[in-house]
Amino acid sequence: MASEAIFLPAAASVQFAIYPDGYDGARIIARIDEEALHKRFHAPQGQEKLVQAYAQNSDSIDALAMERYRANPNEAICLHSADF
After folding, report:
1. Full-model pTM
2. What residues contact residue 29 under an 8 Å CB cut-off, 6+ apart?
3. 31-53 mean pLDDT
4. pLDDT band at 2 (very low <50, low <70, confident <90, very high)
5. How far is it, in rounded angstroms, from Cα 6 to Cα 61?
6. Across the strands, what pairs with 8?
7. Burial 32-53 (b: 16+ CB within 10 A, else e)
8. DSSP at 46
9. Beta strand pairing status for 28-33 and 77-79?
10. Which of 2, 30, 39, 68 is the most exposed place for a label (fewest CB within 10 A)?
11. How far apart are CA 72 and CA 84, in angstroms?
């Protein structure tokens, strides 16, 4: 499936979707902030570069988002630099 990730300027983060029960199940929206993408994943400046950094590292980012979701499905998922 193609990435659904987009940059949200107002939140300074990349929004993406995870599917805890597979693509036929619920679509959960999560975010990773710009700082985490720069510090942890060495993303260059620029909105498109941040989305690309997410896409290149989506396996580890999605895994952490999934872990957060499973720990508390009612809490918003926003990953920060300290989470990695």
Report:
1. 0.91
2. 15, 16, 17, 77
3. 96
4. low
5. 14
6. 13
7. bbbebbbebbebeeeeeebbbb
8. S
9. parallel
10. 2
11. 18
- For tokens 């580890």, the residue is 60
Q: At what angle do helices 47-56 and 58-71 cross, to 10 degrees?
A: 80
Span 20-33, mean pLDDT? 94
How far is Cα 16 from Cα 64, in angstroms, rounded to an integer? 13
Contact predicate 79/64, CB 8 Å: yes
Q: Which of 19, 2, 18, 4 is nearest to 78 (CA)?
A: 18
Instruction: Place 1 in a pLDDT band, splitting at 50, 70 and 90.
Output: low
Q: What six digits make up the tokens of 35?
A: 């700082």
How long is the chain?
84
Both ends of the chain: CA-CA distance in Å? Answer: 25
Place of tokens 């987009």: 6
